[in-house]
Amino acid sequence: MTRDQQLAAACAAEGLDPNEALQIGGQYVPLLQHGQELHISGQIPRVGSQVVVCGRVGERCSEAEAQRAARIACLRALVLLYQHLGSLERVARILRLNVYVQSAADFTRQSEVANGASALLYQLLGEAGVHVRTSVGVYQLPKNAAVELDMVAIAA
C-alpha cells in the first residue's frame, strides 16, 4: 500500500476523512511552510467537532486511551501534510514531534503515551517517520484534551 492508502485506512479506523477540512480552534493557521520546512500547529484528538479522548492521564484517562489520543492527534497532523502537499509521498522526513500529555500528579509515563504517535509515523512513513521528540506532562490542555502534539516535517 502507498502512504496515502495507509493514511486513508488509519483515518477510517478512527472516523477521520483525510479529504475533509479539519476543524481548528483559533486565529492561526494549522500548517505553515517556510522553504521546505512544514510546521504543524498543535493537534488534539478531535474527530469532527468532538474531542474524543479527554481528561488527565492517570486519573480519568488510561495510558492506553492516551496513546490512542496521541495517534488521532498525529493522524490529524498527517492529514494536514497530505492536504497541503497533495500526497504523503512528498514528505521527506518528520524532523521533530512535541507531545504534551495532560497528566495526573503522579503520572510519569509521558514517553509511553507519545509512542502512540511515534509508532504511527514509523508505520506510515518508514525511515522518513523517524524523528526527535519531546514529551511533557502538563496540567491542562485546550478543550480538556488528554494529548496535544505539534510537529515539524520536511517536504521532498
Automatic annotation (TrEMBL):
Q: Where is the Endoribonuclease L-PSP/chorismate mutase-like domain?
A: 12-145
Which residues does UniProt call coiled coil?
A: none
In terms of SUPFAM superfamilies, this protein maps to: YjgF-like
Which Pfam families is this protein grouped with?
Answer: YjgF_endoribonc
Protein name, UniProt field: RidA family protein
Source organism = Vogesella aquatica
Q: What is the lineage of its organism?
A: Bacteria, Pseudomonadati, Pseudomonadota, Betaproteobacteria, Neisseriales
